Amino acid sequence: MSAVAPTPNLAQPTFKDLAPSVGHLSAAQVVRRVLRFAILLVAARMLGVQTLGVYALLLTVVEMVAIVSGYGYIDFLTREVARRPNSGASLARKIALLRLLYVVPSLGVALGVLKAVGFSSAVILSTAYLALTLAPRAAGESAQGFMKGLRYFAPLLWIELVQGVIVLAGAVTLLALNFGLRGVIAAEIAGACAGAIVAVGSVRKRSKAATDSAPSLGTLVRSTFAFNIYPLIVNVYDRVDVVILSKLAGAFATGIYSMPYRAFSTSQIIPYGVMGALLPGFSSSRFDQAAQETASRAMKFLYLASLLVILGTMAFARPFVLLALGDTYASSVATVKILVWAGVPSFLNGALNTMLLASGREKVFLWTSAVCTVFNIGANVLLIPRFSFYGAAAVTVFTELLLFGQNCYFSKRYLGRVVLPSDGATSSIAFLLALAGFLLLEPQAGELWAGALAFAAFAIFAMATTGCFSKLKLFLARRPHEEGR
């Protein structure tokens, strides 16, 4: 890849301007997470709870290696390419190389830790096989960071679709042929390679003659240090509960917990799509006053969405889990109902983190994530032996709240104000009324119908307060006129 020509003016975009970008980012993440959930669903049905627990452990460890080797470089590339687009392609190549240099020692440390805490040789070997996905990911994810910095979001959907479909189809086929966990790992490797090929091929279409040089590898190591450590620490507290569960409560508990946690992770599509589209504009403006006002409106949408997810989970979690997974996973229902409350601070944290990143304050993430990690590990060690997966779910909620409190403090300190959802008090009152209605109706109408009514009522409020009805009325009024023309 060669460097790219300058991109168009990166002035602060309007929500109308952002709609295509949000759509592409959100669609890509919907495809990614839905297919990932489908893969786990297939594994849950065809491998059983015990082996699913092992598979969840492997995914967790390999993802932690991916994080320390530089998964956070995607955001770094997005920001730097938005600011200096003419060095983008050269920077993406060096970032991919840097990630590969980190992979081997990071994987060695991870395998050593697994051996030290007593996991079997079969688990360690399977982890090493699954880690083969990290080489193509280094190239593919660097290409994606380059695309995002240029606001070139359209190929992201195809990257995720190709990768996810290959993993899902491969897993179904190989599991049907009785290859077991080895078949799923082979499908993961094939999917990672395919995704990288599509990503690199897509970004080459945007390449132009180089005009700016990228920093040296040594300079990149120093300037990207926070993007290695911060995401690693975040993912330690975000994923260490799976490792602790596997060790202290066994593979069955890990299998029960893994599906609700994947559902919670899938809900992060929403803040990812909105704030990912806003990051290039925020970065180019250094997060000025206009950007803060835009962020407040975006946070209102995220806050309403997180509250809707809670009400939807109250209504539909039980029938969905029992239908999709069977009675064996009945304990997952209560687990997901605990985890869903973490979505509120998590959605808002996604917005606050994006603001701090755009303003160049990513080093504060080292402090916030370190505090959360210490709390998370300590709380999990204390609660998992007594409460198993329920304890792990509760700790996730409290950890997100702790992170939200810290993000508010640093936003006030470095941005001059705490950016919060506009009309947040009104939204909170409406949600509490809907929740109270659910609790009052549940004994008479049942969980499903009471939850569905509460969800519908709050959805109507959310649409009204965000102007969806007025926009729909305007659209319908325009259509006859446009058709007449």
Describe the structure.
- The protein is mainly alpha-helical and 485 residues long.
- The N terminus and C terminus are likely disordered.
Please tell me what the overall shape is.
globular
Query: Low-confidence segments, ≥5 residues, pLDDT <50?
Result: 1-12, 469-483
Percentage beta strand: under 5%
How many β-strands, per DSSP?
Answer: 0
How many individual domains? 1
Helix/strand order: HHHHHHHHHHHHHHHHHH
Helical residue percent?
A: over 70%
Structural class: mainly alpha
For the biggest sheet, the summary is: none
Q: Quote the average pLDDT.
A: 81
Distance between the termini: 46 Å
Overall radius of gyration = 23 Å
**How many helical elements?**
18
Notable features of this structure?
0% strand; 485 residues; disordered N terminus; single chain; mainly alpha
